[in-house]
From TrEMBL:
<protein>
    <submittedName>
        <fullName>Carbohydrate ABC transporter permease</fullName>
    </submittedName>
</protein>
<keyword id="KW-1133">Transmembrane helix</keyword>
<feature type="transmembrane region" description="Helical">
    <location>
        <begin position="110"/>
        <end position="130"/>
    </location>
</feature>
<keyword id="KW-0472">Membrane</keyword>
<feature type="domain" description="ABC transmembrane type-1">
    <location>
        <begin position="73"/>
        <end position="278"/>
    </location>
</feature>
<feature type="transmembrane region" description="Helical">
    <location>
        <begin position="12"/>
        <end position="33"/>
    </location>
</feature>
<keyword id="KW-0812">Transmembrane</keyword>
<feature type="transmembrane region" description="Helical">
    <location>
        <begin position="181"/>
        <end position="203"/>
    </location>
</feature>
<dbReference type="InterPro" id="IPR000515">
    <property type="entry name" value="MetI-like"/>
</dbReference>
<feature type="transmembrane region" description="Helical">
    <location>
        <begin position="142"/>
        <end position="160"/>
    </location>
</feature>
<comment type="similarity">
    <text>Belongs to the binding-protein-dependent transport system permease family.</text>
</comment>
<feature type="transmembrane region" description="Helical">
    <location>
        <begin position="262"/>
        <end position="283"/>
    </location>
</feature>
<dbReference type="InterPro" id="IPR035906">
    <property type="entry name" value="MetI-like_sf"/>
</dbReference>
<keyword id="KW-1003">Cell membrane</keyword>
<feature type="transmembrane region" description="Helical">
    <location>
        <begin position="77"/>
        <end position="98"/>
    </location>
</feature>
<keyword id="KW-0813">Transport</keyword>
<dbReference type="Pfam" id="PF00528">
    <property type="entry name" value="BPD_transp_1"/>
</dbReference>
C-alpha cells in the first residue's frame, strides 16, 4: 500500500490551520485556568498559562450564587431553546411552501423577501412594533424576534428543492396532504439543513444582547449576555457580586476581578460549547445516511 504523498502545500495548509486553532483554543483554556485558580494565587498566572494555580470553585459559586445570574441564565436558555425550535419550524415550513411549483406569486414574494433582507428596519421601527404588540419587557419579544432569517430560508429552500418530486407525488397518491408531506417526509429528509440552520439560530439567540437590552428592561427578565456585558465591559461588579454570604469565611475583597470575569465568560460559553459536538455527531451521521448507494 502506497502512503499518501505529503506536499509542501499540504504542510503549509496544515500549519496555518494548526495556528488558527491555537489562536482560539489557547485563550479559552486560559479563561478556564483563571476561573479555576485560587483567588490568592491568580496573580501567579502569566500571559496565556493553561494550568490553574491551585483549584477553587469560589468564582463560580459567587457568580452562580447570585439569584440575578441564575434567573438570567434560565431566561437565556428559554429564549434559545424555544426561539430556535420555532425558528426552525417556521423557516422550514416557509421554505416548503416557496418550493412548490404551483405556488401563485412566488416571484413577487421572493423579491419582497430579498428586499427586506437587504434593507433591514431600524431599531426604532422594531421597538415600535414590539410596543404595539405589547411584547416589551417580555421574553417572547426575543423568542419571536426575527423568527425567519431570509438567508437561512434561502439555504433551506435549496435543500428542499433536491427532494425528488416523484417521492412527494407518490405520497399524494396515497392520500397525504401538505402537513403530512411536511411532517413525515420533508422534515426527516431535511435533517442536515435543519441541524445547520438550527445551530445558526441557536448561536444568534444565545449571543443576542443589544436587542435584549432594549426590549427587556426589568431585572427579572434580563438575560445572561446583558449581565455579561455589564460586568465584563462596563466593569459593574455590583451586578454580580451581591451575595457575599455565599462566601462563608472568605472575604469578598480577596476575590480577583479578572477571575470573576473569566468565570462569567466561561458560564456563558459552556452551553454553546456543549452544542457543537452534539450537532457534529448527528451532522456526520446525516451525511453518511445521505450518501449515494449502488
Amino acid at each position: 500500500m502506497v502512503g499518501k504523498k505529503i506536499t509542501v502545500s499540504k504542510l503549509v495548509i496544515g500549519l496555518l490551520l494548526t495556528l488558527l486553532t491555537l489562536t482560539m483554543f489557547v485563550p479559552i483554556v486560559n479563561l478556564f485556568a483563571r476561573a479555576l485558580s485560587q483567588p490568592d494565587r491568580v496573580h501567579q498566572l502569566k500571559g496565556y498559562d493553561l494550568l490553574p494555580k491551585g483549584f477553587s470553585l469560589i468564582n463560580f459559586q459567587v457568580v452562580l450564587g447570585n439569584p440575578i445570574v441564575g434567573k438570567a441564565l434560565l431566561n437565556s436558555l428559554f429564549i434559545t431553546v424555544v426561539g430556535t425550535g420555532l425558528c426552525i419550524f417556521f423557516t422550514t415550513i416557509a421554505a416548503y411552501v416557496l418550493t412548490r411549483k404551483n405556488l401563485v406569486g412566488k416571484t413577487p414574494i421572493m423579491i419582497f423577501l430579498i428586499i427586506i433582507m437587504i434593507f433591514e428596519p431600524g431599531i426604532v421601527q422594531e421597538y415600535m412594533v414590539m410596543k404595539d404588540l405589547h411584547l416589551l419587557d417580555s421574553l417572547w419579544s426575543m423568542v419571536l424576534y426575527r423568527m425567519i432569517n431570509v438567508y437561512y430560508l434561502i439555504i433551506m429552500m435549496r435543500f428542499l428543492e433536491e427532494i425528488p418530486e416523484s417521492l412527494l407525488e407518490a405520497a399524494r397518491i396515497d392520500g397525504a396532504g401538505h402537513m403530512t408531506l411536511f411532517i413525515r417526509i420533508v422534515m426527516p429528509l431535511a435533517r442536515i439543513p435543519l441541524l445547520t440552520i438550527g445551530m445558526f439560530y441557536a448561536i444568534a439567540k444565545w449571543n443576542e444582547f443589544f436587542k435584549s437590552s432594549i426590549f427587556l428592561s426589568s431585572r427579572e427578565n434580563t438575560v445572561l449576555q446583558v449581565l455579561l456585558r455589564q460586568f465584563v465591559v462596563e466593569r459593574d461588579t455590583s451586578t454580580l457580586v451581591g451575595a457575599a454570604n455565599l462566601l462563608q469565611n472568605n472575604n469578598i475583597a480577596q476575590l480577583d476581578f479578572s477571575s470573576l470575569k473569566a468565570a462569567t465568560i466561561v458560564i456563558a460559553m459552556i452551553p454553546i460549547l456543549m452544542l457543537y459536538p452534539i450537532i457534529l455527531k448527528y451532522y456526520t451521521s446525516g451525511v453518511m445516511d445521505g450518501g449515494v448507494k449502488e
